[in-house]
Predict the structure.
Amino acid sequence: MPAPRLPWKRFLPRSRPDAVNPLAELFPDIGVPDAAATPFRRSYVILLMPRSGSTMLARTLLLSGLFGDPDEWFNGDPGSVAANYVAEERGNTFYSYVSHIHETTTGANGVFGVQLSFEHLVHLDALTPLSHVVGPQACWFLLRRRNLVAQAISAYKAVATGQYHSYQEARAEATYDANVIADTIAAFVDWELGAFQFFRERGLWPIELYYEDIVDEAFSIALFRNALQIYDDLEADTPARQTYPITKIATSENLRWEETFRSQYAKFLVEIERKRPRILIPFPGTSAGGS
């Protein structure tokens, strides 16, 4: 039975009709949860906003060997891990896929992590209690970016050029479009508002992460160690999955676009920052729950 509509779900990203759930389409048979205990002892969820450094953060955590292999495992789009799992006929139910992800991405120290975009969260929550995926005591993080203008420009250029990461080649040129950038900023703030509504309804207190901070790998590792109470390296992993070095793809053009946009949309930016939600909870602010 579909999950009841909740207020936070009205913030579903505008890019896809609400009726379309790629995970539900991939897994029409949900199956039943594995009766065996989950293979992880500690778990965490990174709820991310677009172009907030999630790929860089996932790589940092994976290569540390301490935090499992956190990635967007519940992205149901074509070419995703979930889509390939079905295409390769490795399983035919949603819960078989959940078990597969638990078994293959949990670290030797029993730590399991996953990244969810707001859209992935909506689709996953519609299929199953979140605790069936991340456990009942998951630690939640919210990853976003302080500089909304730079974030929106990055997102617009990624879509326009087809280059989302530094190891990819651009397939087209992007031209400055202030209206698209403004709409993207407004959408990002809507998603942040939806995330905050979700946290309030579930009684969760996420730890705030910002792109501007996680570019410091040592900072990220120390923060996650503290939040997950990992104080030794006795069971550190040697990552089995190939990763690619991540470097910034922003250019001087991004800075010029930002300067132009800020001069054109100064009043809009003042209003959008007033609308933007804030977490006023002291660190570490760890959370329990995830039903």
In short: DSSP finds twelve helices and four strands in the chain. The chain has one domain: 41-275. Residues 178-202 form the longest helix (25 residues). The radius of gyration is 19 Å.
